[in-house]
């Protein structure tokens, strides 16, 4: 027992995040040293060897920063969370510094990097403005209630378009701790992909008007899209209810069905977490 306690105390002495930061800094300064050696080399084989080491350091930094996991979940950077995007910026910045140190104009390269980053951030802001123009009333309601999903009534959801409903589900599942990705308009029957505990689920979203039910077609669509996106689970979510045939088809194809009551349960979970 004492040995185990001593091991735990040793591990707590240097927290894991600090160890990772120290390792990243160590690799970066090692890379800087390698770049200086590349500048001093006149022998081509030796220079190539140092270049190989430099590439390996870049790959190790990529993995240490967790970017390999982010790209594995989705290659579309626009759907990444802010923390993941900032991590990518940091990785690019470190590589820019390594390259700049070899070209002897590091100051100019750093200024160029921040200029490109500024322009990139502006483009994100412009996209956000376009989204706000598309769904002004929906966003206004969310802002008034501090972006709390519970304050979006079922009546508000009933008045959403299909695209607004998908965006709403994106926020809902993101708040529930899932990694969420919106698929392109040619979605092959899957509107959203959510990932949690390494389980990938494809979701077909159906927002219908009063009196309509979701039929077998939605089940068939998500089954087809599930194969395309290689998901482990499939689900159909609606603000209404499912037809009897749709329920039978869903059970046969192992598709989860979330109707109006199920959607309200998800909203309650969002606010009780």
UniProtKB/TrEMBL annotation:
InterPro entries assigned to the protein according to its UniProt record, in alphabetical order: Restrct_endonuc-II-like, Restrct_endonuc_IV_Mrr, tRNA_endonuc-like_dom_sf, Type_IV_Methyl-Rstrct_Enzyme
Entry keyword annotation includes Membrane: yes
A single MF term (Gene Ontology): DNA binding
Coiled coil: none
Transmembrane segments annotated in the record for this chain: 21-40, 46-65, 86-103
A biological-process GO annotation: DNA restriction-modification system
One Pfam family from the record: Mrr_cat
Keywords on record: Endonuclease, Hydrolase, Membrane, Nuclease, Transmembrane, Transmembrane helix
Residues covered by the Restriction endonuclease type IV Mrr domain: 157-267
Family matches, as Gene3D superfamilies: 3.40.1350.10
Entry protein name: Restriction endonuclease
Species this protein is from: Edaphobacillus lindanitolerans
């Amino acid at each position: 027992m004492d040995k185990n306690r001593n091991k735990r105390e040793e591990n707590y002495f240097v927290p894991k995040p600090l160890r990772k930061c120290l390792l990243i800094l160590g690799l970066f300064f090692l890379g800087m040293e390698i770049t200086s050696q590349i500048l001093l080399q006149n022998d081509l084989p030796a220079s190539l060897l140092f270049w190989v080491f430099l590439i390996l350091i870049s790959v190790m930094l990529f993995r240490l920063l967790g970017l390999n996991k982010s790209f594995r979940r989705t290659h579309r950077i626009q759907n990444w969370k802010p923390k993941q995007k900032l991590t990518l910026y940091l990785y690019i910045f470190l590589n820019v510094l390594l390259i700049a140190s070899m070209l002897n104009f590091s100051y100019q390269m750093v200024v160029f990097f921040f200029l490109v980053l500024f322009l990139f951030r502006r483009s994100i802001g412009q996209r956000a403005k376009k989204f706000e123009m598309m769904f002004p009333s929906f966003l206004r309601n969310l802002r008034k209630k501090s972006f709390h999903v519970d304050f979006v009534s079922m009546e508000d959801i009933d008045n959403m378009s299909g695209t607004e409903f998908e965006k709403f589900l994106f926020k809902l599942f993101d708040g529930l701790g899932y990694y969420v990705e919106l698929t392109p308009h040619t979605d092959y029957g899957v509107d959203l992909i959510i990932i949690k505990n390494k389980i990938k689920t494809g979701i077909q979203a159906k927002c219908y008007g009063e009196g309509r039910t979701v039929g077998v077609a939605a089940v068939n669509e998500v089954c087809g899209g599930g194969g395309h996106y290689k998901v482990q689970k499939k689900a159909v979510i609606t603000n209404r209810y499912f037809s009897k045939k749709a329920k039978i088809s869903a059970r046969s194809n192992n598709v989860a069905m979330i109707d109006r009551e199920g959607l309200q349960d998800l909203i309650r979970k969002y606010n009780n977490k």
